[in-house]
Design goal:
The protein is an alpha/beta fold. The protein has one domain: Rossmann fold, CATH 3.40.50. The protein has a 6-stranded parallel β-sheet, with helices on both faces. Strand 1, helix 1 and strand 2 form a beta-alpha-beta unit. The N and C termini lie far apart (51 Å).
């Protein structure tokens, strides 16, 4: 029996935007993934944002953003876990949930993979999944090439797959625009924009 190929896309999704959807859609197509699970983080250990938007609101926005895309779903796995959201704990749980008949792919941006050795138990992550990494124009490829020569990563280099993404949108930029009263129409799905307006978020 052929293994189900499942992509896992984590993040604070504060807010979710068209860049997140673009990375998920392109990864699904290029790597023949059967489905993609969006995992909003509860309490990310690496984020210094003092005010991370309420988790239920972020979850609601992700659900709104992926509505009507059959292969996309969202998981509360990190939102319902107390303490910091470590990727290694999430993948241990996801491995149990999907079982041996699934192959997991961790979808992320180049900045995240460049920092992977500072994460909690990174080598255990390499044992549990493969990495699909989106690079953007002007990405830090030099840093990645240095990382690739580092023995623990070099041994696992065949588990890291890069692809280029032209869309360059950031949640930080969206929050800044909202604060300044600037439009974000082309940056987020219509439903997300409506929800932000209705709830008066990021003002």
């Amino acid at each position: 029996m052929k293994k189900k190929r499942i992509g896992i896309l984590g993040g604070t999704f504060n807010p979710p935007h068209k860049g997140h959807l673009a990375i998920a859609k392109k990864a699904k197509k290029l790597f023949k993934l059967h489905k993609i699970v969006f995992v909003p983080s509860g309490l990310p250990p690496h984020k210094t944002e003092k005010k991370l938007l309420d988790k239920e609101k972020r979850l609601k926005m992700v659900k709104t953003a992926i509505k009507g895309i059959p292969a996309f779903s969202v998981s509360r796995i990190e939102l319902d876990r107390s303490g910091y959201s470590y990727a290694v704990d999430t993948f241990i749980e996801l491995k149990k949930k999907f079982g041996k008949q699934a192959k997991l792919f961790y979808i992320m941006g180049l900045d995240s993979i460049n920092d992977i050795l500072n994460w909690r138990k990174p080598l255990e992550l390499f044992r549990m999944c493969e990495f699909i990494v989106a690079t953007r124009p002007g990405s830090k490829m030099r840093t990645f090439k240095r990382l690739a020569k580092f023995p623990p990563v070099e041994r696992n280099i065949d588990k890291i797959h890069l692809f280029e993404l032209k869309k360059d949108i950031s949640s930080t930029d969206i929050r800044k625009r909202l604060k300044a009263g600037k439009p974000i129409k082309n940056m987020v799905p219509a439903g997300v924009s409506k929800y932000i307006k209705k709830e008066k978020l990021y003002k």
